[in-house]
Design goal:
The complex is a heterodimer of chains A (about 210) and B (about 200). Chain A has about 210 residues and is an alpha/beta fold. In chain A, about 20% of the residues lie in helices and about 30% in strands. In chain A, strand 7, helix 3 and strand 8 form a beta-alpha-beta unit. The two termini of chain A are about 20 Å apart. The mean pLDDT of chain A is about 95. The model of chain B has no long low-confidence stretch (mean pLDDT about 95). In chain B, the strands form 2 sheets. In chain B, strands 1, 4, 5, 8, 9 and 10 form a 6-stranded mixed beta sheet that branches. Chain B has about 200 residues and is mostly beta strands. Chain B has a single domain, classed as Sulfite Oxidase, Chain A, domain 2, CATH 3.90.420.10. The chains are: A alpha/beta (about 210), B mainly beta (about 200). At the A-B interface, strand 2, strand 3, strand 5, helix 5 and strand 10 of A face helix 3 of B. Chain B: It comes from Geodermatophilus africanus. Chain B: This is Oxidoreductase molybdopterin binding domain-containing protein.
């Protein structure tokens, strides 16, 4: 059974999203019961399809269905794009910090920057337990982002968490910082930034809370 | 597309009537969701101001707020991200008590709550009166944890929980509605979970 799936959706009358926004996927059972969850968009707005990355959670009601049951050709009820805060406009310098599936909205930002020829605007660091678990690992590494692995060594880097030493070289005044990941990761990473002097008002956080 | 999703059955469940549509019971967890870094606020320097369309703008310090009549909420809370948490227990002071002191004028119809971080949320006045809203500093018999809005947050449990502004420092009464942070970023001006008012246009 897959750990994660990428869904590429053809959305009728799609409104272009901004990198960082998400879609809501809503499932309806025969008796009318409904369950919905939000998924960040990984694709750039110019991609004709909307790409969502879905991690299969243990006992995940929606993610289990999306990972195990959905097939090509199926129809899903979706709503979006949603969100006006955790978005990158393609013109301002930004520091992107993602943990685990928190890298997904950052991937959309990186893809958008590549298309605009403005990869110079972004500095990115991502954290994962292992490379095998990192969504879009090949793409992120090819983009030259700083990759921190907490459970294994890779390259010359020993296992270890993200620290200020990883982030300070990426930081420049004038950047907006985007921090995305689980509750614990987002808290730690945002506090690292505050502690080395990044103005709190310049830090945008998106936390993936518990979602069963 | 309004019909069932092919192959989706949902969890084995009895549909719990305490769950608003589209929500699930998160059990003993209490997820933390914020848009900004967690601020650190000491009770000694915290204060709450009620101002705007009121006859007597009033500010309470931590000690002064604690001398007001204590009020508790025991019940459920619902987050727009679809989790609901049952049987929570918060304590603080009722917003009615604060408004009795500040005395809203006849043209006060809305309230905007402001947090230490600059976060704001707007609510109709009738949604924060009549025993439906509190300013709380206690959760589950202990101090409200900082990641959940401590030392003090607004609590409006009959609406989606983004309306219960964390780290609240000001309640401003307005004549006309003024969208707050999430309301400007795509979310509903009222946020009733029983009518699934999640996003603008719902």
């Amino acid at each position: 059974m897959p750990q994660a799936v990428r869904l590429r959706l053809s959305v009728a009358d799609r409104v272009d999203h901004l990198p960082g926004q998400h879609y809501v996927v809503r499932l309806t059972a025969p008796d009318g019961y409904r369950a919905q969850r939000s998924y960040s968009v990984a694709s750039a707005p110019s991609d004709p399809l909307v790409e969502l990355f879905v991690e299969r959670l243990d006992d995940g009601e929606v993610s289990g269905y999306l990972a195990d049951v959905v097939e090509s050709g199926d129809e899903l009820e979706v709503r979006g794009p949603i969100g006006g805060w955790f978005v990158w406009d393609g013109t301002h310098p930004a520091l992107l910090i993602g943990g685990g599936t928190g890298v997904v909205p950052l991937v959309a930002m990186l893809r958008t920057a590549r298309e605009l020829g403005r990869t110079d605007l972004l500095r990115t660091a991502v954290s994962t337990r292992t490379l095998a678990e990192l969504p879009y690992a090949d793409e992120l590494r090819a983009a030259g982002v700083v990759v921190v692995t907490t459970r294994e060594a890779h390259g010359v880097r020993p296992a270890g968490r993200l620290t200020a030493a990883d982030l300070v070289p990426l930081w420049e005044p004038g950047q907006t910082a985007y921090v995305c990941g689980s509750d614990g990761f987002a808290e730690t990473a945002s506090q690292l930034l505050v502690d080395f002097g990044v103005p709190a008002a310049g830090i945008r956080v998106e936390r993936f809370g518990a979602s069963g | 597309m309004a019909g069932p999703t092919r192959g989706f059955l949902g969890r084995r469940r009895e549909r719990n009537p305490r769950l608003p549509p589209g929500q699930y019971d998160v059990g003993r967890d209490w997820p933390v969701l914020t848009a900004e870094p967690t601020p650190r606020i000491s009770p000694e320097t915290w204060s709450l101001t009620v101002d705007g369309r009121v006859e007597a703008p009033t500010t309470w310090t931590w000690d002064e707020a604690h001398r007001l009549p204590r009020s508790e909420y025991r019940g459920d809370i619902h987050c727009v991200t679809t989790w609901s948490k049952f049987d929570t227990w918060f304590a603080g002071v009722s917003v009615d008590t604060l408004l009795e002191a500040a005395r809203p004028t006849a043209d006060a119809h809305f309230l905007v709550a402001t947090s230490k971080t600059g976060y704001t949320t707007n609510l109709p006045l009738e949604d924060v009166t009549g025993g439906r809203a509190w300013v709380v500093w206690e959760y589950d018999g202990g101090p409200l944890p900082v990641e959940h809005g401590g030392p003090v947050r607004l609590l409006v449990p009959h609406l989606y929980f983004w309306k219960s502004a964390k780290w609240v420092t000001r309640l401003t009464l307005l004549q006309r509605d003024q969208p707050g942070f999430w309301e400007q970023n795509g979310y509903h001006d009222r946020g009733d979970p029983w009518r699934e008012q999640r996003y603008q246009g719902d």
